[in-house]
Design brief:
- The protein is mainly alpha-helical.
- It has two domains: about 80 residues, Arc Repressor Mutant, subunit A, CATH 1.10.10.10; about 100 residues, no CATH class.
- The chain contains eleven helices and two strands, in the order H-H-H-H-E-E-H-H-H-H-H-H-H.
- Strand 1 and strand 2 form a beta hairpin.
Length: about 230
């Protein structure tokens, strides 16, 4: 469960409507300290908050005019999107529950919990003691659902590294990337993975440390991760 600390100034602010308040606090909740911005798409904000797209656009414009956010437009392979910087009421202090030191089931050694359709980096790259001995590490990767989906549209079997990456990405984001991949008539696995990364940024979902570390280790500048 995620908690967000809000300032009294924001809570009692009479300059914004209830919808503007909800959108603004949603942006605050998605703030990425490393990139110093939030980057959910207009569509994601609308869907998650159950607010019409037109209202979201008006509210974003109003928040910008009030100086609560600064908007920068960025271009990705799958389309343009906004990033939101200089959030006026941002409180960056993180609260950690020190009592909870027990490792959680499904969380890997880097402290990252995989999203739906993912496996941990240990499962993808190392032998798993719980796996039946008759099934090799490579068999586990080759038979992963994400790899099977990618195999239907590209030559994924020519890159074992690309297959390892795909075992770590969110299944729904991969499906959307595959749809864009087909529209753009993509051919290679590298382009498909770049489209998946674009989907993470468009939907305001942060890449897991496992995924970033693996990308940085093997891609050597082939992908743009500095949004």
């Amino acid at each position: 469960m995620q908690f967000l600390k809000l300032s009294h100034e924001l809570i009692t602010d009479k300059n914004i409507t209830s919808n503007e308040f909800r959108i603004y606090t949603y942006l605050l909740s998605l703030y990425n300290a490393d990139k110093q911005c939030s980057y959910p798409s207009i569509e994601v904000i609308s869907e998650r908050l159950n607010i019409s797209i037109s209202t979201v656009k008006r509210s974003i414009k109003k928040l910008s005019e009030l100086g609560y956010i600064a908007i920068e437009k960025r271009k990705g392979l799958a389309g343009n999107f906004n990033i939101y910087k200089k959030l006026k009421h941002l409180i960056t202090t993180k609260v950690i529950n020190k009592k909870d030191k027990t490792p959680k089931v499904g969380i890997d050694n880097n402290g990252e919990k995989p999203l739906n359709g993912q496996i941990s980096v240990e499962e993808a790259l190392e032998n798993v003691e719980e796996e039946p001995k008759v099934q090799s590490k490579q068999d586990s990767i080759d038979n992963h659902n994400n790899v099977r989906m990618a195999r239907a549209v590209t030559n994924i079997d020519n890159s074992n590294f690309a297959k390892k990456i795909l075992t770590l990405v969110d299944e729904e984001l991969l499906r959307e990337a595959i749809r864009n991949f087909k529209k753009k008539r993509g051919k290679n696995a590298t382009f498909l993975i770049q489209l998946v990364i674009d989907e993470y940024f468009k939907n305001g979902i942060e890449l897991s440390k496992c995924l970033v570390n693996l990308l940085n280790k093997g891609l050597k500048g082939s992908f743009v991760l500095s949004y």
